[in-house]
Write a structure and sequence with these properties.
Blueprint (H helix, E strand, L loop, with lengths): L3 E5 L2 E5 L8 H18 L1 E7 L2 E13 L4 E10 L2 E12 L3 E10 L14 E7 L1
Antiparallel strand pairs: 1-2, 3-4, 3-7, 4-5, 4-8, 5-6
Length: 127
């Protein structure tokens, strides 16, 4: 694999490098693989989405009714600050940038979690 982990200030960072010999599809496949690992290991992740940094507990990875791959996750932090807007969010994979898997884990699924979410046409991975 052409990615590596870097440790800084007690956090583990997953770095997805850009290689000119990698296609966009290869990079997308790597993103899907790393998100699947985070869901399975219950790792808290951080990423940039439309210019905002989110920290979430990933629960489900799948394809929505609009035929777009997405991540359903419990929001815990926005731009490095705890938020009272905690809750379920769905993020389109095509808009996720700078993915980092943190060393912190979550133990339980959150209230309202639907492992067989009927808004998904296909589920790739779930907690």
């Amino acid at each position: 694999m052409d990615f590596h982990l870097a440790c800084k200030a007690g956090k583990v960072k997953l770095l997805l490098p850009y290689h000119s010999n990698k296609t966009a599809q290869d990079m997308y496949s790597t993103l899907l693989e790393e998100l699947s690992r985070a869901v399975g290991a219950r790792l808290i992740i951080q990423f940039s989405y439309n210019g905002i940094t989110y920290e979430v507990e990933p629960h489900l990875l799948g394809r929505d009714m609009n035929n777009q791959d997405c991540l359903c996750a419990w929001l815990t932090n926005v731009s490095g600050k705890e938020t009272d807007l905690n809750g379920w969010r769905c993020f389109l994979l095509q808009d996720i940038r700078d993915l980092r898997a943190l060393e912190q884990r979550f133990c339980h699924t959150r209230p309202g979690y639907k492992p067989y979410d009927d808004s998904m046409t296909r589920i790739y991975y779930r907690t």
